[in-house]
Amino acid sequence: MEYEYILEFTVRDYECDLQGIVNNANYQHYLEHTRHEFLVSKGISFSDLHDQGLDLIVTRAVIDYKFPLRSHDKFIVTLNLRRDGNVRLAFEQEIFRIPDKKQIIKAEITGIASRNGKPVSPEPLIKMLGEKS
Amino acid sequence: MEYEYILEFTVRDYECDLQGIVNNANYQHYLEHTRHEFLVSKGISFSDLHDQGLDLIVTRAVIDYKFPLRSHDKFIVTLNLRRDGNVRLAFEQEIFRIPDKKQIIKAEITGIASRNGKPVSPEPLIKMLGEKS
Amino acid sequence: MEYEYILEFTVRDYECDLQGIVNNANYQHYLEHTRHEFLVSKGISFSDLHDQGLDLIVTRAVIDYKFPLRSHDKFIVTLNLRRDGNVRLAFEQEIFRIPDKKQIIKAEITGIASRNGKPVSPEPLIKMLGEKS
Amino acid sequence: MEYEYILEFTVRDYECDLQGIVNNANYQHYLEHTRHEFLVSKGISFSDLHDQGLDLIVTRAVIDYKFPLRSHDKFIVTLNLRRDGNVRLAFEQEIFRIPDKKQIIKAEITGIASRNGKPVSPEPLIKMLGEKS
């Protein structure tokens, strides 16, 4: 499978909880950081956008937890972007442990663009991100 | 609507990110803490269970983000538990800002019971939790 | 001993790390949240101050870790404020497990007031906070 | 200056708070992760040590906050280890933004080795870590 963007991480001990595995909430951090680095790779900064009054807002997260990560595991987070109707963007994201490619997470994160609190067309943003058709 | 368990929180400033709103991952912390306190209210400790080799594992989270929480907002997290097939538990959870009852989050968190890494029947656990039929 | 402000907490499981104890960084969260709630109790909001261009900046933290907190421990965080020279505020803060009053943390957090990135006199702020002389 | 260990990071947006700068507690995460990766570089895993009943416990943190990090800043965390009396280890750690070498944090983190809750000599550990004399 082909991905538009891939980012590599190492689990940090403070991300693990008393079960000795990465706490569920931290996977959202990994997924978010990958989305933001994807934007950066396209010349777009999430914090600059915010300073300009344009926010990307997550409206829905569907996350399947397949297998837990543990202390010092290395892993990649993948990203594919597609349009979802007229106003939504859908980020299909997966996490794989490396080097054995064990699937850890399969997620779909849906978002909208919002200017000063009002939803706006994601069209200009999608153009910048170079949507594949 | 009736809830099996309700827990009240206040947003802490460190939970807000540079958009000035609660970071998405922190809602999972709120949801998780409510589930664990629900267990405690039934005389079950998540960390004691872990020490006995029994872990509750989240396998799927579906979270709809309806409206963001901000610094110092007060809110409640609700919980209803139902069986989902033979091996899964489903926690239906919502977050409402108080006192205006604005809906913030609607989530369904699915989990399984696992002993030493193998899925086990959630039946004894459900009995302890007093499943409504 | 007398304290100007006291806030009560319960350890949340996600705050514990793989050692089964609260991760060191989280004590700073507890200390910070207590300082911010102290401000709120005086009618001052940290986030409102920020929106007005006035930030409170921590310049030094000295934290003695006496004993660890564990899952579901209840505890209080105490706060005393004193002036430290002309431009600095010093927050003396301690954490005690309850009900047994076991000392967990002894900390001194030093800060300055900063307007648009420049240090300013903390005098007006101290007046609002009702400094004891 | 020479350092025994250096680790490079990028600020992740979720580490920034509503002031738009890295939240104070997260610097402790950076410092801790660097200490643990230093151990790994010497063939020692913090989580393996824990599973063997040996914990490294931080007893004191002195952290000077010199300048804040912001979204997407790149930085290094440095580490030098020295013995502090008979039972303590002192980690001298600094954070510098790169590439401009702006000093961000200067910290001294003191710890002890503890076996099943009792302090033990750090001698074997120091030998493994190749203390400079």
Record the SSE blueprint:
4 copies of one chain form a homotetramer.
Chain A: E1 5-10, H1 24-41, H2 46-51, E2 54-65, E3 74-84, E4 88-98, E5 103-115, E6 118-120, H3 123-129
Antiparallel strand pairs in A: 1-3, 2-5, 3-4, 4-5, 5-6
What does this structure look like?
The structure is a homotetramer of 133-residue chains. Chain A has three helices and six strands. The first copy, chain A, is of the alpha+beta class. In chain A, β5 (103-115) and β6 (118-120) form a beta hairpin. In chain A, strands 1, 2, 3, 4, 5 and 6 form a six-stranded antiparallel beta sheet that branches. At the B-D interface, loops of B face loops of D.
Class from helix and strand fractions of chain A: alpha+beta
Tell me the number of strands of chain A: 6
The biggest beta sheet of chain A is recorded as: 6 strands, antiparallel
Q: Bin the strand percentage of chain A.
A: 35-45%
**Helical region count of chain A?**
3
Round the Cα radius of gyration of chain A to an integer and report it.
15 Å
State the shape of chain A.
Answer: elongated
